Amino acid sequence: MKPPKTVFACQECGSQSPKWLGRCPDCGAWNSFVEERTPEAPPASAGRYVAPAGGGATLYADIASSSAARITTGIDEFDRVLGGGIVPGSLVLLGGEPGIGKSTLLLQTAAHIARATGPVLYSSGEESEHQVKSRGERLGVGDAPLYLLAETCLERVLEEMARLRPALVIVDSIQTVFSLKMQSAPGSIGQVREAATQLLFAAKAQNVPTFLVGHVTKEGSLAGPKALEHIVDTVLYFEGERQHSHRIVRAAKNRFGAVSELGVFEMTATGLKPVPNPSAMFLAERPADSPGSAVLCCIEGTRPILVEVQALVSTSAYGYAKRTAVGLDQTRLSLLLAVMEKRAGLALGGDDVYVNLAGGISVDEPAVDLAVVAAVASSFRNRPIAQGTAVFGEVGLAGEVRATAQAARRVREAEQMGFSRCIMPAANIDPKDPGFAGTACELIGVKSVQEALEHLLA
Ligand SMILES: Nc1ncnc2c1ncn2[C@@H]1O[C@H](COP(=O)(O)OP(=O)(O)OP(=O)(O)O)[C@@H](O)[C@H]1O
Ligand SMILES: [Mg+2]
Ligand SMILES: [Zn+2]
Description:
This protein has helices at about 75-80, 100-115, 130-140, 155-165, 190-205, 225-230, 280-285, 330-345, 370-380, 405-415, 450-455, and strands at about 5-10, 15, 35, 90-95, 120-125, 145-150, 170, 210-215, 235-240, 245-255, 260-270, 270-275, 295-300, 305-315, 325, 350-355, 390, 395, 400, 420-425, 440-445. With about 450 residues, it is of the alpha/beta class. The protein is built from 11 helices and 21 strands. The chain binds adenosine-5'-triphosphate, magnesium ion and zinc ion (ZN). The site of adenosine-5'-triphosphate has 14 residues, from helix 2 and strand 11.
């Protein structure tokens, strides 16, 4: 018998090599290669072609349409992130930091589906049945037909899945599951990928939606991120800080819905509760008449949300200026500061600049630019932006303010939240646009950063 073949796999990206490497040639990670045994060679017959029982390819027109059948999770913010509920047979990965609420959200979902649709299999490799039960008692699971399985062996989970024919399967977490077919340790990229692939086949074959919990590394990515993200249909991440009671769940990939769609929740003793009005929550603690605070109208997924952008500009004590961005791209901040310095004449060169999006939200759409400029200038000049002013717009390198998508919906949200004035790209103001008809908001279109600052800090 030949000795089992070993390969070395990068634990960051899944790249493989026949020998150990200090640095991954694909993703550049150091010391990320770990020895893994490849699965036993398949039997010789596996190579030979066997006609599938159901025949070959199916005529497109003969395939039954299944668009209508989404399963609700019972939590509307969660349904929203999923693109309108759970798609039967889909494999969804839910990632997040330790203790952020992954098990809580999925146990709540499990309880609802068990009650409304059919039995649910909750397989936990991290917690005993008693631990899950005591959480369930707090969340009010009651006597819903929920099956708990404290198991880390993938083959056992698949067996139970075939036996129970559940309406939903939850695997908490994918990193604790191991397949007997692989000899590497649970949590290694080989195991994680193998387990996810087998669960994908099972989910599709039995048309059972399946959720996988994924732990994230210190850097905030899932262990084996690229490998997993390609396998599953949908990738959701918990965002936000554990210290706050609110939680954000965002779609990073979705084969069945808009990405960057987000759901906002509040963690309570009885579980995660949807936050019906996220704008109100993000603006709740905004200081009145304080310099360095601007309100941004951003669009997250399909929904407009108001967020507070905070900036602090202070004289640098270290000889070199420090620039820190929380919730937005650091490079973007540097670029905007350079534009402000060069095009609007704000001498920020010797100052430390800190910018933060309040509430732990992160925004990566360009419309954030003008709000960042507004907050920084307000702190720099030590002059507050007038109450009731909301801002959005992309800023170009020449200091020009560029149009953004869905301007009318941003204005509507600002208006609903009681804002009376929008400083926005001039190119977005189209009097013929029915979206703006009858708005109570004063719309101030600006063409440049300089012009925007004249209105903001007048
Ligand atoms: N009695 C309680 N009242 C309010 N919140 C609670 C209570 N008990 C737990 N929590 C919240 O639930 C969180 C833990 O949630 P959960 O176990 O779902 O997280 P997780 O993401 O699954 O964590 P892990 O990565 O450890 O599995 C705690 O951080 C806390 O915020
Ligand atoms: Mg958990
Ligand atoms: Zn790599």
